[in-house]
Structures are given as structure tokens and as C-alpha cells.
Amino acid sequence: MKRIITGLLVLLVLVVAGAWVVRGKIALRIMERRLATAMANPVVPSLPDGLHVAVCGAGGPFPDHDRGGPCTAVIAGKRMFVVDTGEAAGRTMGRMGLFGSDFTVLLTHFHSDHIDGLGNVALQRWGGGALTTPLQLYGPAGVERVAAGFSEAYVLDSSYRTAHHGPKIMPPSTAGIQPRAFAIPEGQDSVVVLEEDGVKITAFRVNHGPIDPAVGYRFDYKGRSVVISGDTASSPIVAKYARGADLLVHEALSPVLVNLIREAALKAGNAKRAQIMHDILNYHTSPAEAAAIARDDKVGALLLNHIVPPLPLKALEGPFLGDARKVYTGPLWIARDGDLVSLPAGDRTITRKNLLH
Q1: pLDDT for the residue 163
Q2: How far apart are CA 259 and CA 261, in angstroms?
Q3: Cα angle 316-331-73, degrees, rounded to a multiple of 5
Q4: Is residue 22 part of a domain?
Q5: What's the structural domain count of the chain?
Q6: Segments forming the whole domain that contains residue 66
Q7: Of 200, 204, 199, 201, which is closest to residue 185 (Cα–Cα)?
Q8: Cβ partners under 8 Å of residue 192, min gap 6
Q9: Residue 61 lies in a domain
Q10: Tell me: the pLDDT tens digits for 144-167?
Q11: Which residue out of 64, 84, 102, 113 is catalytically annotated?
Q12: 70 close to 109: Cβ distance less than 8 angstroms
């Protein structure tokens, strides 16, 4: 009997080991097919002509399992622009298949949660294609200091990579970040920061005081338009530049949910955390306020991003939105990392899918 049991145990071990081998072989085949598809079909060149918005980070400064720090890629034709580079931006861009084409970064302001992924984004760009210039970084006054700081922080890393891979693969001349500061003239509320290849990008002032300067961006391309609010309290300037836009990507903070955090902090004796929760209420926009802008200014669709606070349960989306869906009856979405909203040139359609789910 003992021999029979021993034999059965040995057979079971062999069966399990064989199953693991088979599973491993199947997994390798799946990985090979996926890699072949990804290499042969990069996302940006495969998109139809028009404007496309890819959400590389839909969260804010809070730790959030489901949403990375603020990052929104806008594809206009075959060109890509990345607005803000929050934590995990580079990793999410990679998972979405957005690397491989060159791109430009634009910053709305210099809060840490909007820039702390910049170093990795610049590194991934450097290693991802045949380039002749460093990453171009547009932003209001102060962008020079941000670029210089990240370039200095990564200078040793860059030297290691050039030494390892060789200057032909990782040329030192294309490492780092090249700032391109712009200023909105006194007495004006906007400035065109780039106009080429049919793409027009307008930066406009937003109300995020005491943070100054802080801007949002409007993208126009072949009759389609996208507005990205950046961080702001509800603002008539945002409304002005969102007027008639196909898509408004607007930050959103729920006062109801933030106040729950504040009350919990007070009960726990954490006065500092409670004060911070109180302070952030006055320089952000509620979902209902963003919805009112979309309604009053005839926006085609509203995508809420910079979601504060995190929504660990899907059932919290209702309390987060509050009356927003009553205020604005057009397409309204709470952004998720991986979302791709497409506005094809030549018609008025707006479609949404997710590249990660």
C-alpha cells in the first residue's frame, strides 16, 4: 500500500510539472504574438486622421491604485503632445503603446503631482526611437527650472546608458530636456504656443491661485477641438475657450467625499490632514460645476479627470458625480487610465474605448 501511495504521489508531481511546462509554452506563444502585434502596429500611426485623447493618468496627488498622476496625450494627425507627466505617466504610456513616435510635453503648472513622472517620460522617449533633439518641454515661466532640475537629476543615469549601449543607440545629444517657456501678455488671457502641421495649441490662464502661472490648453486640428482645463477652480476663462469644443477634459474634485476624509482626519486627531482637505476645496472644480460649463458652452462631450479623491469602489462614482449628469445630459465620463477618446476629422462623431481593459 505504501508503494502504491508513493507511486501515486510521484505521478501527481509529474503531472503537475508537465502542466506547468505546457502552460509556460502556451504563455510564451501568447507573448510572442502580442509582441509581434505591438511592434508591427504602434498606436499613434494606426489612428485615423483627427484628434485623439489618450488618458495616461486620470488621478491626482492622492495614492490611487486605479489612476496614475495627471497625464493626457493628445494625438493630432501623426503628432503627439503630452499634457502633464504625473507619477506613473511613463509606465502607463508604455502599457498603452504610445512610445515609439516622437512627442512634445506641455505642462499646465508645476505642482509636484503634475511633473513627478517627467524624468521617466523623457528617458523612455530617449530610448524609444531615432531622435535628433532632446525632449521639448513647453510651459509658462518657471519651466526652465523644472527642465534644468530633471536634466541634472538624470545626468549620471544618462551617462551610464550611453556608456553601456553606445552613443549610436543612446546619443548624449538627445538626452535631457529642452525648455520652451511662453508668457501670456499682460491684459490678455491666452497665447498661441504652437501652430504647425495643421495643429494649433492655445494656452489660457486658469484660476488655481496661489499657484501662478497656471494654464489650460486648447487643441484645434482639422475642424475638431479638445480643451484640457489643467487644475483650476470653476473659471469663466475655461468656459470661454471650451465654447463649442468637441471634448472638454476637465479636472474634478468632489467636496462631499473630500469632506468625509476631513471629518475622518479630525476624529483621528490629525489636524494637519484635516486642514489640507479644507484648503484644497477652493482651487478645484466640482463635477457639477464642470458639467455646467459643458452645458452652457455647448461642449460635445465631457471627460472628468484629475479625480479627487480616489474612488476605490465603483459605487462611489454616483456620490462623486452628484448632480453632474442632471446638469449636463451629453456624453459624460469619469476618466480611467487607458481611455482613448477619438474625434475623427471630417465628421462630428466622438467614440471612447480603453486600451488597457
Answers
A1: 96
A2: 5
A3: 85
A4: no
A5: 1
A6: 49-354
A7: 204
A8: 200, 201, 202, 203
A9: yes
A10: 999 999 999 999 999 999 999 999
A11: 113
A12: no
CA distance 206 to 200: 19
State yes or no: is 339 an active-site residue.
no
Query: How far is CA 234 from its chain centroid?
Result: 21
Q: Distance (Å, rounded) from C-alpha 167 to C-alpha 154?
A: 17
* Average pLDDT of the chain to the nearest whole number: 93
- Residues whose CB is less than 8 angstroms from the CB of residue 264 and which lie 6 or more positions away in sequence, other chains included: none
> Is 42 a domain residue?
no
Paired sense of beta strands 79-83 and 103-106, if any? parallel
Segment 202-213, tens digit of pLDDT: 999 999 999 999
* Mean pLDDT on 330-350: 97
pTM for this entry: 0.91
Q: Is residue 217 part of a domain?
A: yes
Cα–Cα distance for residue pair 171/126, rounded to 1 Å: 9
Q: Domain holding 62: CATH number?
A: 3.60.15.10
Report d(CA 226, CA 344) in Å as an integer: 12
Q: Whose grid coordinates read 482639422?
A: 222
Counted residue by residue, the chain has a size of 357
